[in-house]
């Protein structure tokens, strides 16, 4: 029995070593017969080289996935980045949403990534939620359902597998499942709203569903995380919703599942027994493989293990064929007319929808002058991974003819733009704007004569900023949104 097929370890890019430091993980995973991998980061060319090498050494179809909620450029440098799903949802244009799914999948396949861990089907219904927020299309169940389906349709049209997450809904939590096990005490009637986008996705034929490391006593009184719950996975998702595709765990390194399962090996066994087919991001692939293999015939019925393996192998064969088709089409295309990823036309379209999504969240934000001071206030610290680059915003302003001086928060008499980063980030542990960031913004604006805040976060956070200051909200802090905000201001689109 190829129990290794259920394993999907992570491979993370490092600028210093590329993927070379992952050689031991790759060798162990391939030796165990892993079903595939999840990739984080990397230069697009290097990612393509890696996926080709993995398939060559595996000599069998693989599912290679990535978190691409914001387009292939979210992870892979050189591919096209897209705005956060909340920004896409705010445009409320299903054709645009469908195209984002298609573009994401098309570029992913060109890189050898055939399993897209997107879209988020959670509802943005709890402002205190530290991990959903701008990752979701919005708060209205019907509207979110429509956009989830449109995104899935676009992804399918390109040929990659889509994955809605995080079942049965992470939108009501007030803690981060990376850090602890959240508990949602809403009753079943209230949770019907959360389930609506997942129901719609299942009816639309979505390929896979990712579980939430969240407890829902109304759905399973035992208090188990959904990832470990037969009632939620077997009774609700498989039974009531009628889902027949792959159930994949959220990352097995997260405390939300480790706290419930008392360690990675036990959690993995419990997850497979409960109905999960794929174990995503195990930290110790040999430990998990041995534990799951040893549990077959005991905690895990042999039929359950065979069912999971069958689903993985069938999906891998189908998805790998899509990679082969993408490669063949690229080889047939004239290189002068077609770029496999990061094409200028796709990049221009992404920038245009990013600009369209910007929100004047308070007052009439405008460029204060042609000579300005930019003060960066970064409130996205926390967690094991540093935030992204913050230089695109001032660089783009300069490129558009604005005289920019960058300085600290000390008061100055030059018109000031506060670039405030307050995004949703794993392990950050909180939404909103910290008191320190609010004070820094207020200090920098004091004495400036005129000023604005460009908020790289959810528009609702404008209410937390000092009174009276105009606010332009850009949904997220990635370079695409920085560029869009700078261009919006420099072009005087608000005038």
Fold and architecture overview:
This protein is of the alpha/beta class and 495 residues long. The chain has two domains: 3-332, Glycoside hydrolase, family 3, N-terminal domain (TIM Barrel, Alpha-Beta Barrel), CATH 3.20.20.300; 358-490, Rossmann fold. Helix content is 40%, strand content 13%. The chain has 15 helices and 15 strands. α4 (94-110) packs parallel to α5 (141-158), α12 packs across α15 (479-490) and α13 (392-399) runs parallel beside α15. The radius of gyration is 23 Å and the shape is globular.
Question: What descriptive keywords fit this protein?
Answer:
7-stranded parallel β-sheet; alpha/beta; 495 residues; 40% helix; Rossmann fold; TIM Barrel; 2 domains; 6-stranded mixed β-sheet; 15 helices
Number of domains: 2
CATH superfamily of the largest domain: Glycoside hydrolase, family 3, N-terminal domain
Shape: globular
End-to-end separation: 67 Å
Low-confidence stretches: none
Number of strands: 15
What is the N-to-C order of secondary-structure elements (H for helix, E for strand)?
A: EEHEHEHHEHEHEHEHHEHHHEEHEEHEEH
User: Could you name the CATH class of the largest domain?
Assistant: Alpha Beta
Q: Any idea what the radius of gyration is?
A: 23 Å
Secondary-structure-based class equals alpha/beta
CATH architecture of the largest domain: Alpha-Beta Barrel
Please report which band the strand proportion falls in: under 5%, 5-15%, 15-25%, 25-35%, 35-45% or over 45%. Answer: 5-15%
Strand order of the largest sheet: 2-3-4-5-6-7-8
């Amino acid at each position: 029995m190829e129990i290794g097929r259920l394993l999907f370890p992570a491979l993370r890019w490092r600028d210093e070593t590329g993927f070379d430091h992952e050689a031991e993980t790759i060798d162990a995973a391939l030796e165990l017969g892993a079903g595939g991998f999840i990739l984080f980061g990397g230069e697009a060319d290097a990612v393509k080289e890696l996926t080709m090498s993995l398939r060559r050494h595996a000599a069998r179809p693989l599912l290679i996935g990535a978190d691409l909620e914001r387009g292939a450029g979210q992870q892979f440098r050189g591919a096209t980045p897209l705005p956060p799903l909340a920004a896409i949802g705010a445009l409320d244009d299903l054709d645009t949403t469908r195209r984002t799914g298609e573009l994401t999948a098309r570029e992913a396949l060109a890189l050898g990534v055939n399993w897209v861990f997107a879209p988020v089907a959670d509802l943005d219904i709890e402002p205190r939620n530290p991990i959903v927020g701008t990752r979701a299309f919005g708060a209205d169940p019907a509207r979110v359902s429509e956009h989830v389906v449109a995104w899935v349709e676009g992804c399918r049209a390109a040929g990659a597998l889509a994955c809605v997450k995080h079942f049965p809904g992470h939108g009501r939590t007030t803690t981060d499942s990376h850090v602890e096990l959240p508990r949602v005490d809403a009753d079943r009637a209230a949770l019907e709203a959360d389930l609506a986008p997942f129901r719609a996705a299942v009816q639309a034929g979505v390929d896979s569903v990712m579980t939430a490391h969240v407890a829902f006593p109304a759905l399973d009184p035992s208090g188990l995380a959904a990832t470990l719950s037969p009632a939620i996975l077997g009774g609700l998702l498989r039974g009531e919703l009628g889902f027949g595709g792959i159930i994949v765990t959220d990352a097995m390194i997260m405390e939300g599942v480790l706290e419930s399962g008392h360690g990675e090996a036990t959690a993995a066994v419990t997850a497979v027994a409960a109905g999960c087919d794929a174990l995503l991001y195990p930290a110790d692939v040999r430990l998990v493989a041995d534990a799951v293999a040893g549990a077959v015939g005991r905690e895990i019925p042999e039929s359950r293990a065979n069912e999971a393996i069958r689903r993985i192998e069938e999906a891998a064969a189908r998805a790998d064929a899509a990679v082969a088709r993408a490669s063949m089409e690229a080889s047939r295309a004239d290189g002068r007319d077609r770029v496999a990823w990061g094409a200028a036309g796709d990049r221009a379209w992404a920038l245009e929808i990013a600009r369209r999504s910007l929100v004047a969240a308070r007052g009439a934000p405008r460029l204060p002058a042609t000579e300005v001071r930019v003060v960066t206030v970064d409130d996205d610290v926390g967690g094991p991974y540093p935030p992204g680059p913050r230089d695109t915003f001032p660089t783009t302003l300069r490129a558009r003819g604005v005289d920019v001086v960058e300085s600290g928060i000390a008061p100055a008499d030059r018109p000031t733009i506060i670039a405030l980063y307050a995004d949703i980030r794993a392990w950050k542990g909180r939404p909103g704007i910290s008191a320190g960031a609010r004070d820094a913004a207020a200090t920098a604006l004091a004495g400036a004569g005129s000023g604005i805040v460009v908020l790289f976060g959810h528009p609702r956070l404008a209410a937390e900023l000092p009174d009276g200051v105009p606010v332009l909200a850009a949904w997220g802090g990635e370079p695409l949104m920085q560029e869009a905000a700078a261009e919006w201001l420099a072009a005087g689109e608000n005038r």
